[in-house]
Design brief:
Blueprint (H helix, E strand, L loop, with lengths): L36 H9 L1 H15 L5 H18 L8 H24 L7 E2 L6 E2 L16 H11 L2 H11 L5 H8 L3 H18 L7
Antiparallel strand pairs: 1-2
Helix pairs in contact: 1-3, 2-3, 2-4, 3-4, 6-8, 7-8
Amino acid sequence: MRSTADTSRRPPALVTTRRVVRPVRPKPVSRARPLDSLGQARVEAFTSLAYRLAWYYARQRARDVPPDELIAEALFGLTYAAGMFDESRRVPFAAYATMAIRHRLGQLIRTWRRAKRAVPYPVGSNPDDGSPWEAADHRPKPDLVAGASARDQCERVRRVLPARWYTVLRLRHAEGWTFQEIGDHFGVSRQFIRQVLDKATDRVRRHFPDWPSP
């Protein structure tokens, strides 16, 4: 007769936890290629398309967004389209560039409106009639240029310029890059960089009349 072993005296089985290590997902890498001479020629030939779409959005769909922001974003979308364009797909460049520019403009408009939906700081109420009331600030306004540090000046300039205009201004005057080097960095011609730099300098002079000459 087969004897059955006493299972009550067996040591409990060891429970091992298995640790699952997930691989780190690499960040997406842009497939945009540096612009060659053909890509730069496409950008210069279709610059009017970027301006036309930017002004269309400024007048019809995004009147609350500054036109300069829309123009800068449209030019960036055109440059990106020229770097991503593949002739083997048999798609006209004008149609591909229009799609890319519209996509960039849509993203800019959504980001701009989302930032404007911030809750304003509440003001007090007049105890007599309940109307909004806020104490007047009679302190003299600080000078935006005199006595400010270099970092404060750069921050004020950055607030009044589009992001790419400020980058061009910084690379030219702070980093000491040439027009050709900045153009190669953005994939555009040096004449276009010179125009952007002139527009950025004019806007800075309008906001800060005492700004020193570069």
